[in-house]
Amino acid sequence: MYQEIILDHYKNPHHKGLREPYDVEVHHVNPTCGDEVTLRVKVVDGVVEDVSYDGQGCSISQASTSVMTDLVIGKAVDEAMSTGEAFLELMQSRGQLEPDEDVLEDGIAFAGVSRYPARVKCALLGWMAWKDATAQAVATTGEGSA
Amino acid sequence: MSTLLAATTYDVAAVRADFPVLGREIGGKPLVYLDNASSAHKPRQVLDAERAFVEQHYSNVHRGVHTLSQEATDAYEASRERVARFLHAPDAHEVVFTKNATEAYNLVAYSFGNAAAGSRFALGPGDEVCVTEMEHHSNLVPWQMLCERTGATLRWIPLTDDGRLDLADLESLVNERTKLLAFVHVSNILGTENPVDVLVARARQVGALTLLDGAQSAPHQPVDVTALGVDFFVLTGHKMLAPSGVGVLWGRRELLDAMPPFMGGGSMIEVVRMTGSTYAPAPERFEAGTPVISQAVALAAACDYLDGVGLDRIAAHEHALTGRLLDGVRDLPGVSVIGPDTLEKRGAAVSFAIDGVHPHDVGQSLDELGIAVRVGHHCAAPVCRRYGVPATTRASSYLYNTEAEIDVLLEGIVTVQRFWGR
Fold it and tell me: Complex ipTM, two decimals?
């Protein structure tokens, strides 16, 4: 489960730390283990301009959030959302899916995590927070591509 | 010394032989099961007793005149008597079967909530319920909900830095307005054994009722509810070698007979008319619907098993294991115990933190070594908040664990540190 990529992101997380400016800030928790993330999203012209976050949690939740920021920042909201769907599908695959590196990049390292259902929610914590914040940002600011 | 004593008088190999699962391997490594505070394994004797009952004597209880119905009723009621003996309760009518400990707390909370204004159980604005900061959510949230419904105030006894109750303000926290003091006997997350005598004495001074959460004490040490002097005592079967699905509320008969019902339905009634109903006396009053029949029979078998081995001997054995673990952890740099780090007034659950490694990662890495521990907030999130940790890793031993297993855990902790420290 603990791939080098995961350990690297855990020890040296990308885009960590809360930044200005932002449209929406959300706070998500994993009630069964106490992991939490505070996450901010800035959307400009339908593009995910910035995602910043702070939180505490296990290596899986922290590394997954770091990988997520790499994958969504700079992408159109629609495209980033479908990347999120691809990651969700991978995490629900119970190890039965061959991930597409072109789509998920470092996210493919989490394929092994999908075999541990108890840890899947860890890997999804940051993604769910981002999805929630981005949907709110699109709704409240009228931003987004559609 | 205590280790030697336990080793010479306690045949842990014979105990282990009764638990089939202990022969399992996890990822090619022998299972080291140290998650007993969460749930314990079942010996063959308990499984055999439940199976024999279901295969030969099963029927619904308190409902028929046929032979099986009578046999099942007899077995169910004999189980009630067995649990009463296990708790040294004076009267089997004081034993109410529930589905688990959580239902038992809710039973009392909802019963109090249903009490008519002016009754000794009724709460309202100005009344208080007192708990402790180390409660399991199951003995906390029902009281929060009761206070919300009634306008009563919830107060709590805080914790000291070393994981004990801070009793400095006990007299103001438990006062003339306090209707109930509900507290845990042995903490599931800290391992602390609380001074029941001190708390009960204060509650009696002010006329408050007492409820003791025995989920982590009844499986591990002799319990005498009369000697403890509490008004209610709660245990759950699955932590004491019985199947999941059965728990117990023990309450003084005079109280149970005066308390209003919790759930309505079959079995709990006396006379039912379309215009209204009257209720059966305790314990039936609190056992609406078909109860947990075969699980109660299995719980009685678990009581037989525990009393057969001897709860005082089980307690001594666990004490030795806990001492070995605490000593070993003390020698490991970067590992700290959350809770009392001495054996004094302490149960077998030991929570610890490894610097720089999240408990989930600790638990996952230990699993790769065949070691089962619990990670998380252990349904006691306020305790984690109090000690500034998001979660803990908890090892909790029981009657079938060995010194060698404690050593495997201690070596495992070093392996975890090495992996995550690179």
Answer: 0.83
